[in-house]
Amino acid sequence: LPGMWADLCVAIRCDAFGIEEPPPVDIALVPTLPEDGGSSWRGRILSLEGRPLDADQKASELREQLANQLVDHWALNLTRTRLDVTPDPSSDKAWLEGELRSHLASQLDDDLGGSNFFDAILASDNLTSLRRLFMAVEGGPDDLRLTLQGRGTGFVRVPKAALQAYLAHRLRSEARLDGDRYANAESQDPSVVDFDLLAVADPSTIEVVDLLPDPSESVLWAEVVFQRLEPTQNDPNTPRVAYEPFAFIDGRWQRLNAQPNFFGPVLEEQGEMITLRYTAIDQDAIPGLLVALEARYDQVLSRLALAQLQPQVFVSVSPYNPGPLWEPADDYPAEFVHVAVRSPFSASRPVEQSRRDIIWAIALGKLEINIEAYATGGR
Prior knowledge:
Elements: H1 2-11, H2 14-17, E1 26-30, E2 45-49, H3 55-79, H4 92-108, H5 116-123, H6 128-136, E3 146-148, E4 156-158, H7 160-176, H8 197-200, E5 207-213, E6 220-226, E7 240-249, E8 252-255, E9 266-270, E10 274-279, H9 289-303, E11 312-318, E12 336-342, E13 349-350, H10 355-375
Parallel strand pairs: 1-2, 3-4, 10-11, 11-12
Antiparallel strand pairs: 5-6, 6-7, 7-8, 7-13, 9-10
Helix pairs in contact: 1-4, 3-4, 5-7, 9-10
């Protein structure tokens, strides 16, 4: 028993960072629990229900019961100011309590999965954030005030992987509550295509695997892996990737509706026969695409014997709906082939394809199809 208690202390570095241990407990080995299941003893006595056991079973079962209740005792005392007040199940406090239970339990049983959130904090160089984390939940609001290391003051600074775990919790909670708990009230810009992740995702499958700053660094785009609640014929229930923007507003992370400034300025590359337009957020997937498009253009004209046709081609990789940001400028030739590619930041894609893969595959495929349609009068 002292060894278990010491292991739990080590699990959260309580000695090194002055995190106060829970109050000591008494252990009662009783034939049966009281009618309330022992809840009246919570925080004071760890109750073990004694049952006739074989000698080989007794030690392992008693140890498992003790471990579970010690974890419960530590998690409750470190995350709740009042043991008789249960936090809202979808709140940050309830999530933190669950993550702490998973982390502590994994320290006593190597077969348990643990917590990505606490693993990330303990692997970082800023372990003092643990103490600040537990101080932050004492009497505070349900929303944790977390920020990335190096950003902001007066908040609990956590490493990127910990923030990813936290934002995944926010997305799962919002998806379970029909999207109305954490969504920012900012209205949707009609020029932007905003993929409705929370309407299609199975909340239990949502994970945030990366955080990408927008070009202006005003928001963080969460790269989200998920599976659909209801698979479709064209989209089977396999892992997919989508993006959700978050901003740190009024001391908490809020999911936002996508706005034009989140994608950065519109950029353009000009070839001999092809114009390529895209927004700054996709520019890391674009290098070499114009050259590949021009090579495919020449191949298609040669294959179809259309060397005399040579239409101008306008390729747009865009998060926008059709309109000024989607179409070429007014002085562009009236007769042209338009290849429209939806930005990965306003759509979903199979997890095995990168943003570059999906942009290039669609752009090159549509170029060939649309030139053939143009040549046969189907433009």
